[in-house]
């Protein structure tokens, strides 16, 4: 049994090779990066606590990580981290990677199975992140339900002049956390060290990112990081994103023992403010509108 927390090796490497800080022009650095990788199977071993720490560290430092071996373990002799069907996920991943297959051809049951799996994974991760803050994980579980979460199927057509057009403009997500299933085309980039870092597609992993609500609820410990999608001139791209959202009446506030960075707000207020900003000034302002 590997006694080292696996992320630490990946993570140390990332920390010990600081990226070029000169490039602050907002253009892609071109180097694809390997996000922190979390092996979820460790949650079933004596290294579970290391694994949970890795998740929290990645959420705090990167706001982004990949969950690994979620897919590969199903059907094997070991128990998969989530006791649910992985059929929908495997099917989606293989279908997203076949060219000329659009969402229209994916069966409704497959989409539903995928939503059920991503929903379980999102609750599991949110629970771990809440627990690491010393907060009540049941609060998130109770507020984020099948009625309030949603899944989006994204199709990015190929674009002959991608440098002038984004598949998806730079943004942060207005939720607790997002889980992304993507094909092998690539194009997702995140802002780190003041520049855009492409996220290398990994067929065995899902990408997880922290949203604005977790950043506020954690009083700035977990980071909601700006990301965008750059279109490819040669390939269309497909992805599926699951958003862990609470009901509109949910109150987002940091722990009473802390000096709050953000004022207390409801998810309804947050959504309304985002919509208003987009309408009036053309873009989302986000959490900086809610400073204490
Ligand atoms: O398609 C992607 O890679 C990212 C999607 C995304 O950021 C979103 O839907 O909010
Ligand atoms: Fe996003």
UniProtKB/TrEMBL annotation:
UniProt keyword list: Iron, Metal-binding, Oxidoreductase
Fe2OG dioxygenase domain residues: 147-246
GO molecular function: metal ion binding; oxidoreductase activity
Keyword Metal-binding: yes
Pfam families in UniProt: 2OG-FeII_Oxy
Transmembrane parts of this sequence: none
InterPro entries linked to this entry: IPNS-like_FE2OG_OXY (IPR044861), IPNS-like_sf (IPR027443), Iron_ascorbate_oxido_reductase (IPR050231), Oxoglu/Fe-dep_dioxygenase_dom (IPR005123)
PROSITE patterns: FE2OG_OXY
Entry's family note: Belongs to the iron/ascorbate-dependent oxidoreductase family.
Protein name, per record: Gibberellin 2-beta-dioxygenase 8-like
Taxonomy of the source species: Eukaryota, Viridiplantae, Streptophyta, Embryophyta, Tracheophyta
């Amino acid at each position: 049994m590997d006694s080292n927390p696996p992320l630490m090796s990946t993570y140390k490497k990332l920390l010990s090779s600081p990226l070029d800080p000169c490039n602050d022009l907002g253009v892609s650095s071109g180097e694809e990066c390997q996000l922190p990788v979390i092996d979820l199977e460790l949650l079933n071993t004596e290294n579970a606590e290391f694994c949970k720490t890795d998740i929290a560290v990645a959420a705090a430092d990167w706001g982004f990580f990949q969950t690994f071996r979620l897919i590969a373990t199903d059907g094997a002799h070991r128990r998969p981290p989530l006791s649910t069907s992985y059929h929908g996920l495997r099917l989606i991943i293989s279908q997203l990677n076949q060219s000329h297959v659009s969402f229209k051809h994916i069966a409704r049951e497959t989409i539903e199975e995928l939503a059920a799996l991503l929903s379980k994974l999102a609750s599991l991760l949110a629970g771990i992140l809440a627990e690491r803050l010393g907060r009540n994980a049941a609060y998130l579980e109770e507020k984020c339900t099948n009625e309030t979460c949603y899944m989006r199927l994204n199709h990015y057509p190929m674009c002959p002049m991608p440098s002038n057009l984004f598949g998806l403009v730079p943004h942060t997500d207005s939720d607790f956390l997002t889980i992304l299933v993507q094909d092998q085309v690539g194009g997702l980039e995140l802002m780190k060290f003041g520049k855009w870092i492409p996220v290398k597609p990994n067929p065995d992993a899902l990408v997880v990112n922290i949203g604005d609500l977790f950043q506020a609820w954690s009083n700035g410990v977990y980071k909601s990081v700006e990301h965008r999608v750059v279109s490819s001139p040669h390939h269309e791209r497909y992805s599926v994103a699951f958003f862990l959202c609470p009901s509109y009446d949910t109150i987002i506030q940091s722990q009473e023992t802390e000096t709050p960075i953000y004022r207390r707000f409801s998810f309804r207020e947050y959504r309304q403010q985002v919509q208003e900003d987009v309408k009036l000034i053309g873009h989302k302002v986000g959490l900086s509108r809610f400073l204490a």
